[in-house]
Design brief:
The chain has 695 residues and is an alpha+beta fold. The protein is built from 24 helices and 31 strands. The two termini are 51 Å apart. The structure holds guanosine-5'-diphosphate and magnesium ion.
């Protein structure tokens, strides 16, 4: 709501794609019906346009991204496709939790930020600030943004990517009134803050936007401060691609070689009534031509590209070929999914595009008419392919279809509403919380024997060190690193508090749980390890308490005796046995549940802050911090996700409709022990599992 789409309108109008008059009202990039009805951006929208800046022509590939935290997945994927980001903040509301999340997302992808302080007209008209007060406010917002850049940027970028008024990497203006200024532009044209305030007070918006047209000022800033693909790929490729940089394909991408082999990342997949599916991709090397055959690396498939196009918002313009550095629309890649790497030969895949927040809100879906089940399943398959922050799961035991997302709005906009539009009537449950199972203390060793009595496994479990868990939660270590570069992982793990001896014995990780082999000299263990890994993965996928995914566990293989003949130690003799062993060990290690909690910021009029506090306490929440500024209270609080359903409505009710909340972070914390057994019983009931025997 800070004005990103209105701002995009100005650029689109500046490129002659919509009329100047309609800019700021048409909201060209919010072309989806749902977006127009809800008045928010739900889907990232692409527009390629040519701009003349000081006599030179520039091709700008713009992506207007959603702002609502529930659609954050689209922002994360868009960041992979671009090299620069214009951070838009409302001059009145200032830096909000969403601004922090977007800056974090950009810097994770080494995308350089510049800052546009929008809705400056409100400072004049609503707050009636003097030029000095306006500048004070700008300095504060810029300070907060630079604080976030230094918090999330890597050392080598932190300083040089700070935004500064003097060099024009900050601009101020009004996307709605179509004007903007920056220090370099003020120096060049002589226009001043005083002029701006005068024109705004007299509602001479057209005069002002003629003197300081937003698209011109903003593009000057973009062209001067944001890198071209050639400049950006030098440092972005080593971050997002972990293949051999000295290889031919590595060099082609680092040098943006348009004549090199094709290498690109799919950042979005959209159903299209005419073309079937259109995959949006950022090309990092080579030139994609109509008719090219490309490898879909993760899926080990080859597909032919039938159409190559650039985006003009809702429309696509077909081209014969498009070179590296651009964002394209490709038809023909029916098997592609968001995050897939495509290339003209087998190459190391790009890093997976990981969203900052996990899907923590779940609903079970059931077709009103059972005959629609296949349609529902097909729809969910497509929906999760388009948006990987949606996770769908079918419970084998009950056939229950579960869909998880970042929030209620996410599930409504991307699942429930589109199903309705397709005439697939469904019954949905109330939102369900997915917990995590873990242990509070080390277990004793447990022994499990295979049904044929020929094999014996000794296992034990321990809670993971907090520091180690944080490494996984921050995405600093993942399964690929454990598999491909354990040496590097060991260094990080030891720094985070794990013993070197233990770290070196890690076999694999799954769901932020570790399998560690501390056995010595067990014959045939290596050749049985594949089955043990499968058993471990299935055990941590559904814990013993309530069948919820496990987390923050260390599982140890302490010893084993295995039959010399692998006929007697097949999958049936190993997998269920080891899985049972893990669960038995967990049950003897004070098993407990972790619940997802949200760190939120609640903004409300100062005089109603008491109501907000009461509401938080009634929701088993914890107040972390409260700041009061100019009559507005901002309360930072921690609230269990289980208590956030209906929070929006309760907050509106408690604050005469003036309060609103935004998400800062999502994490998992131990559920209070006195609530545990009641929650376990309810989950088991829902899943149709028998009562848990008393511990
Ligand atoms: N006063 C004022 N309102 C604006 C300005 N820019 C956008 N808006 C309004 O803010 C609301 C949200 O704008 P939108 O572009 O959809 O925000 P987005 O969610 O960031 O894309 C709309 O009602 C706009 O008309 C501005 O510069 N001044
Ligand atoms: Mg928008």
């Amino acid at each position: 709501m800070h004005g990103k789409t209105t701002l995009s309108d100005n650029l689109v109008a500046g490129a002659g794609m919509i009329s100047e008059e309609l800019a700021g009202q048409q909201l060209f990039t919010d072309f989806d019906k749902q977006e127009q009805e809800r008045g928010i951006t739900i889907f990232a929208a692409n527009v390629s346009m040519v701009h003349d800046v000081d006599g030179d022509e520039y091709l700008v590939n713009l992506i207007d991204t959603p702002g609502h935290v529930d659609f954050g997945g689209d922002v994360t994927r868009a960041m992979r496709a671009v090299d620069g980001a214009v951070i838009v903040t409302d001059a009145v509301e200032g830096v909000m939790p969403q601004t922090e999340t977007v800056i974090r997302q950009a810097l994770l992808e080494r995308v350089k930020p510049v800052l546009f302080i929008n809705k400056t007209d409100r400072l004049v008209r609503e707050l009636q600030l003097t030029p000095e007060q306006m500048q004070e406010r700008f300095v504060r917002i810029i300070g907060q943004v630079n604080g976030l850049i230094s918090k999330y940027a890597e050392t080598e970028f932190a300083n040089k990517w700070m935004v500064k008024v003097e060099d024009g990497s900050v601009a101020f203006g009004s996307a709605y009134r179509k004007w903007a200024i920056s220090v370099p532009y003020m120096k060049k044209t002589g226009i001043s803050f005083k002029d701006v305030i005068e024109h705004t007070k007299k509602e001479e918006h057209d005069e002002l936007s003629k003197k300081a047209p937003l698209h011109k000022v903003l593009l000057n800033m973009v062209v001067k401060h944001l890198p071209s693909p050639a400049q950006a790929q030098v440092y972005r490729i080593p971050r997002i691609w972990k293949g051999d940089e000295t290889s031919e394909e590595g060099q082609d991408m680092i040098k943006l070689n348009e004549k090199g082999g094709i290498a690109a990342v799919i950042t979005k997949v959209n159903p299209d009534p005419h073309a079937g599916y259109v995959a949006t991709a950022r090309i990092f090397s080579g030139t994609i031509k109509k008719g090219d055959e490309v490898y879909l690396i993760a899926q080990k498939k080859v597909q032919r590209i039938q159409q190559v196009s650039i985006y003009k918002g809702p429309q696509r313009v077909q081209m014969d070929e498009i070179p590296a550095g651009n964002i394209v629309g490709l038809v023909g890649l029916t098997e592609a999914f968001s995050g897939e790497t495509i290339a003209s030969k087998e190459i190391h895949p790009f890093e997976s595009i990981k969203h900052i927040f996990e899907a923590v809100v779940t609903k079970s879906l059931e077709p009103a008419n059972p005959a629609d089940l296949p349609k529902l399943i097909t729809f969910l398959k497509h929906a999760t392919r388009e948006d990987p922050t949606l996770v769908s799961k079918i419970n084998e035991n009950t056939g229950e279809t579960l869909i998880s997302g970042l929030g209620e709005l996410h599930l409504d906009a991307k699942v429930e509403r589109p199903l309705k539009e397709r005439g697939i009537e469904i019954k949905t449950s109330l939102p369900i919380v997915i917990y995590r199972e873990t242990v509070r203390e080390p277990s004793p060793e447990v022994e499990e024997r295979s049904p044929n009595k020929h094999n014996r496994f000794i296992l034990r479990v321990e809670p993971m060190e907090d520091g180690v868990h944080q490494l996984f939660a921050d995405g600093k270590i993942d399964e690929v690193m454990i598999r491909k570069d354990l040496k590097k992982a060991v260094t990080l793990l030891v720094e985070a508090g794990m013993s070197r001896d233990e770290a070196k014995k890690i076999v694999t990780m799954s769901n932020n749980n570790l399998l560690i082999d501390e056995s010595k000299g067990v014959q045939y263990l290596n050749e049985t390890m594949k089955l043990i890994i499968e058993a471990f993965a299935s055990a941590v996928n559904a814990g013993p308490l309530a069948g919820e995914p496990c987390n923050q566990l260390k599982v140890f293989i302490t010893d084993a005796t295995l039959h010399e003949d692998n006929v007697h130690r097949g999958p049936a003799q190993v997998i269920p046995v080891v899985a049972q062993g893990v669960k038995a060990a967990m049950m003897r290690a004070k098993p407990t549940l972790l619940e997802p909690v949200q760190i939120v910021r609640i903004d409300a009029p100062e005089e109603l802050v008491g109501n907000v506090m009461t509401l938080i306490q009634n929701k088993r929440g914890q107040i972390l911090d409260t700041t009061i500024e100019q009559g507005t209270a901002a309360v930072k609080a921690k609230i269990p996700v289980a208590e956030t359903f209906g929070l929006e409505a309760a907050l509106k009710g408690n604050t005469e409709g003036k309060g609103f909340y935004s998400l800062i972070d999502v994490l998992f914390e131990k559920l209070p022990e006195d609530l545990k057994m009641d929650v376990v019983r309810k989950i088991r009931q829902r899943k149709g599992l028998p009562e848990l025997m008393q511990q």
